Amino acid sequence: MNEASYDIELGTLIMKYKDDILYNLSITDKRKLENNEKNKFTDKVYKEIQEYMKGQRKTFDIKYKFEGTEFQKKVWKVLETIPYGKVLTYLEVAKIINNRKAVRAVGGACHRNPIWLIVPCHRVVGSNGKLTGYAGGLDMKQKLLEIENKNKDVPPMLKKRKI
């Protein structure tokens, strides 16, 4: 597995990849890579994340592969379908996978999402609408949701009003 790091406004973005397939993303403010293996693929991932952070990109064109349990993969597949600027609750995700009693397990799968920005677990919230646990921290979850809320497609006449 190769690793590359880039500085972004949230901290140092660390990518783990192999053969132009992304396996893991993380952000840290402490770790620098000794062997930073940047290439065209990692530059593309970085560029798309930068575009997302600026509100210029709503979907990603990155090849990635999930490594996890079958249950986790099932949850992560649901996360892929949540549109930009929308949120689902953990219960709604549990219902989609036909296991409404698995709300906590859905939360655990979201927390272990290895490609958390591109596969948007930040779009899953508690049943009361409150932000709950997020692998990147609640501040990051809030920031990502704010970026999406600010840049989601709203007709120009409605942008002047508070929604």
Automatic annotation (TrEMBL):
All residue ranges annotated as the Methylated-DNA-[protein]-cysteine S-methyltransferase DNA binding domain in the record: 70-149
Chain ranges passing through the membrane: none
One GO term of the biological process aspect: methylation
Enzyme class, UniProt record, top EC level: transferase
InterPro entries, per the entry: MethylDNA_cys_MeTrfase_AS, MethylDNA_cys_MeTrfase_DNA-bd, MethylDNA_cys_MeTrfase_DNAb, MGMT, MGMT_N_sf, WH-like_DNA-bd_sf
Coiled coil region boundaries: none
Single Gene Ontology MF annotation: methylated-DNA-[protein]-cysteine S-methyltransferase activity
HAMAP family: OGT (MF_00772)
Signal sequence coordinates: none
Similarity annotation: Belongs to the MGMT family.
Documented EC number(s): 2.1.1.63
Stated name of the protein: Methylated-DNA--protein-cysteine methyltransferase
Catalytic activity: a 4-O-methyl-thymidine in DNA + L-cysteinyl-[protein] = a thymidine in DNA + S-methyl-L-cysteinyl-[protein]; a 6-O-methyl-2'-deoxyguanosine in DNA + L-cysteinyl-[protein] = S-methyl-L-cysteinyl-[protein] + a 2'-deoxyguanosine in DNA
Source superkingdom: Eukaryota
CDD domains, per database record: ATase (cd06445)
Keywords: Cytoplasm, DNA damage, DNA repair, Methyltransferase, Transferase
